[in-house]
Amino acid sequence: MTPPHADHGSGPDLTDGVVSLRRRPSEEHAHLFAVTSEGSEVGAVCVVVHPDAVGRLTWELDPGFTGRGLATRAVGLLVDYAFRGLRLARVEAYVPPGNDRAMRVATRSGLLREGLVRGHGVVEESREDRVLFARLATDPPLSKPESFRALLNSFLPRKRAIAQMLVRDHDDRVLLCNLTYKQDWDLPGGVVEVHESPQLAVARELEEELALDIKAGGLLLTDWLPSWSGWDDALCLVFDGGVHDASIVDRVVAQPREIRSAEFCTPEQVRERCADFTARRIESALANVGGAGPSYTESGR
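^ thats the sequence. predicted structure below, dont judge the formating
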């Protein structure tokens, strides 16, 4: 990540005792610094100020000085200067997804990972993705435990959770939904929202999509779903919806954007109408109603 070139300035402007930033002459709205350590110039950092009080951070360290934490210290000084000296509200850095070293520098400097910006960078007339890191002036100091937790939370893996409900009738049939966005049928349920209980989420989904008020019982199955057809992998949690009279389907008011219809299906119909991995998941969940089946499967196995 290379800042614009400029001639050397004079005198250390910022230091933490190990790394110093020496100001360089630069273009308007760009604050450029040479990074020095133990009397040697080891790289450069820059913050470009935008009219909305947002600063764009860039940095580069000479190859012979990487791996010593110097870039992290230099970017940390630059961030502090952006907030205290320039009174910026936010600083940002855009890092190529494959540049693990730069991503470590960003996070260790206190920048939170905010997501992938597709096609943001241009390299040799080709658009490339960038990972966006940012920090706000109002974020807690890095010395605070909540700041460290927020930092970890921003870049640790996140896995999608899906909650489904196994609803049966007195003839041991299973309630299935005919979905609008795929050909095969599936159990009622849906994606768990951020900060939402999976057990409450599945009851909410049945209310929203079928107008059925059924509380979720105990967890019958955790099924890992591998990446498939454009979807990232996910965890599917199947909750026990209990046994009900088959007439509850007469009360169904299907959400037309997602549900065509819903009906109770025999085991044979489940295998006929569902994708093979869905049928396996249903069979595993049914087996665990009495506690005889697996509590964890992968793609239903």
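The helical segments are 70-84, 100-108, 145-155, 198-210, 267-273, 276-287.
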